Amino acid sequence: MSNATYAAAGVDTHAGDLAVSLMKKAVSATHGPEVLGGFGGFAGLYDVSFLTSYTRPLLATSTDGVGTKVAIAQALDKHDTIGQDLVGMVVDDIIVVGARPLFMTDYIACGKVVPERIASIVEGIAKACAATGTALVGGETAEHPGLLGPDDYDVAGAATGVVEADQVLGAERVQSGDVVIAMASSGLHSNGFSLVRHILAQKGIGYTDTSAELGGVVGEALLEPTRLYTGPLLSVLSDPELAGVVHSLSHVTGGGIAANLARVLPVGSWVEVDRSTWSPAPVFRVLGDMAGTTLESAEGTWNLGVGMFAVVAANAASSVIARLKSEGIPSWVAGRVSMAPHDLTGFEQGAKGVNGGAVRLVGSYAE
C-alpha cells in the first residue's frame, strides 16, 4: 500500500506551524501602527500614508544573505546570532544611501523544520530589526528534504526604506578635502567565511575546539554577530546640527576595504586609508597567522576592523565621530579625499560595476 503523503515525503507542516507560533511574539514586537493585518498573512501590509509629507520620496531596497557563516552556527547548534547578521547585511546597505529602513521580510530554506531552531533564527532577526527601527512584516520557512540535509539551512532577506530625493547620499556629494571616518566592526561580520573555513580545515581545527588566542571556543568567536550601524547613523543624519555634513557612506562587505570605499567616491578623487589608525581585532590576526599570510593580503576579503565608512565635511568630522561614539560605535579619521592629480598605481579604482574613485591602504596596522 502506497504511503504517498507530504509527511512521507519529508515535509512536516505541523512543525512549520509550531515554529510560527514560537516566533510570533518576537516578530510582533517589531510592529508599530504602520503594520496592518497582524501576523501570519499571505503578505505583509505597511501603511505609507506618511509619505505624503515627503516632497519626492524615493524607496530604497536591498537583499542579501548570511553566506557560509551558517555552517558554523549549524556545527555549534547555536542559531540566535545569525539573524542579526542577516539584518546587518541587508538593512545597513539601505542606510548607505541615507534611507530610513521601513520593513523587512526573511526567507529560511531548511532540510527539516526544527521549530525551536527556526524560532531562534527568526527571534534574532526580529531583535535586530527592532534595534534598527525596521518592522519584520513577513517571511517564509521552506522545507526541502532531499535537497538539504536535516540540519542544513540557509537564510536570506530583503528590506525597503525611504529617503527624500534631495537627501540621497552618494559620490556626487563628495568634495575635495572631505574626511573619511572609519567605524569599527565587531569582528568578521558575514563576509569571507569560505576563506575562514578553508583555513581551519587546512589546520585541522574544529569549530568546537578551544583557542587561547581567540579566548574560548573557536566557533563562538567566529559567530560574533555583525555590528548594526543603522540606528547610530540615523541619529547623525537626523540631527539638524549635522544636516548635510555626511556626503557618502560605504558598507564594508564583500570585496573588502578599498573596493567598497571606492564605490562611493567620485571619479577623479583618491584616498589613502591609513592602516596605522586602527588595530585589527585578534580574530583577524589569529586567522592570518594560521594561514601564514599577512593582514594586508586579506584586505580584499575581510573587513579587518572597519565595518562602515563615512565621508564627511572636514569641519564636521569631530562632531560626527563624537556622536557615533556616544551611540556605541568607535570611530576615527582614517583618510582624506583629494582631487589633485596623482599617480594612481596600486590604487583600487571602483568596484562591482561602479566607476568610482581610487583607494589604497598605506602604512602598517597598529599593534
TrEMBL record:
Keyword Protein biosynthesis annotated: no
GO function terms (MF aspect): ATP binding; phosphoribosylamine-glycine ligase activity; phosphoribosylformylglycinamidine cyclo-ligase activity
Enzyme class at the top of the EC tree: ligase
InterPro entries: PurM-like_C_dom (IPR010918), PurM-like_C_sf (IPR036676), PurM-like_N (IPR016188), PurM-like_N_sf (IPR036921), PurM_cligase (IPR004733)
Enzyme Commission designation: 6.3.3.1
Keywords: ATP-binding, Cytoplasm, Ligase, Nucleotide-binding, Purine biosynthesis
Catalysed reaction, written as an equation: 2-formamido-N(1)-(5-O-phospho-beta-D-ribosyl)acetamidine + ATP = 5-amino-1-(5-phospho-beta-D-ribosyl)imidazole + ADP + phosphate + H(+)
Record's protein name: Phosphoribosylformylglycinamidine cyclo-ligase
Name of the coding gene: purM
